[in-house]
């Protein structure tokens, strides 16, 4: 049985040996750059763990796992452009290091490369695996569009927000597990149960991301604090604050959301003070715990021996306690 760390290391080794064209260098050098920045390689490692969970041939899951990581990094590359982010994993984002046009085109080629890699899945499950992959890729784009739409709206409901992060973040984690399960020979029921585990864990993961963006240590995170506040992201924290605020607090928060010219530090500080007065950090932590417990229930229901599921329990615990 593979551990999470072993799966991550296996994926990293194959990413480093991935054959990427050299010409034109302006197109492919940024691809190598973003893949070289590291990251936790969580999603591809889940493909490996899920395949191994059902006693599948892990070698057959390696290239599809790398496909998932290439696709994930493509989404990060384009997200950084849309969010005007300057740092990714402690280094300059692709559009900052090169330029925006290069970043767009390099991202495009990464999405194509991801599809080509997924096409190398074993023939007996290729259609099923590729269908899960392409459906998920479209859902991720839908989630990103909703996220951008929400930036222009003053009011977003908690239900709408949770549906958005399910698409933007959770479904790729869920699909990674489902694809690994299919490659491992799992039944349709088992692969769907594992998908639900990943989906609920993915929602908890994104809520944790929201929390860390505001309350995490920038030195540990590798990016600036309060970027969501700066970009008027309708995160769970903002949505819950708008619902719990007094009239005066709500007016102040809306003023900051609508203000076009502001001092970044002043805005971030003012919004965090409102959050603190409303115990938003604690409320977000409760919501994270709720989805985490749902994920654990999904895993408990999975029809596999408990000892075989141990590494997925460890993975869930790792996400629950992460600080970046």
Description of the structure:
Helices cover 74% and strands 1% of the residues. A two-stranded antiparallel sheet has the order 1-2. It has helices at 4-16, 25-36, 42-53, 62-83, 94-97, 100-118, 126-151, 158-183, 188-215, 218-221, 227-230, 236-244, 247-258, 264-277, 280-301, 310-321, and strands at 87-88, 91-92. The longest helix has 28 residues, at 188-215. It has 324 residues and is an all-alpha fold. α4 (62-83) packs parallel to α7, α8 (158-183) packs across α9 (188-215) and α9 packs antiparallel against α15. The protein is globular and about 60 Å long. It has a single domain, classed as Farnesyl Diphosphate Synthase.
Brief descriptors of the model:
324 residues; mainly alpha; Farnesyl Diphosphate Synthase; two-stranded antiparallel ribbon; 16 helices
What are the low-pLDDT stretches, counting only 5+ consecutive residues below 50? none
CATH C-level label: Mainly Alpha
The DSSP helix count reads: 16
Radius of gyration: 20 Å
> Strand content of the residues, in percent?
under 5%
In quaternary terms, these chains amount to: single chain
Task: Report on the biggest sheet.
Answer: 2 strands, antiparallel
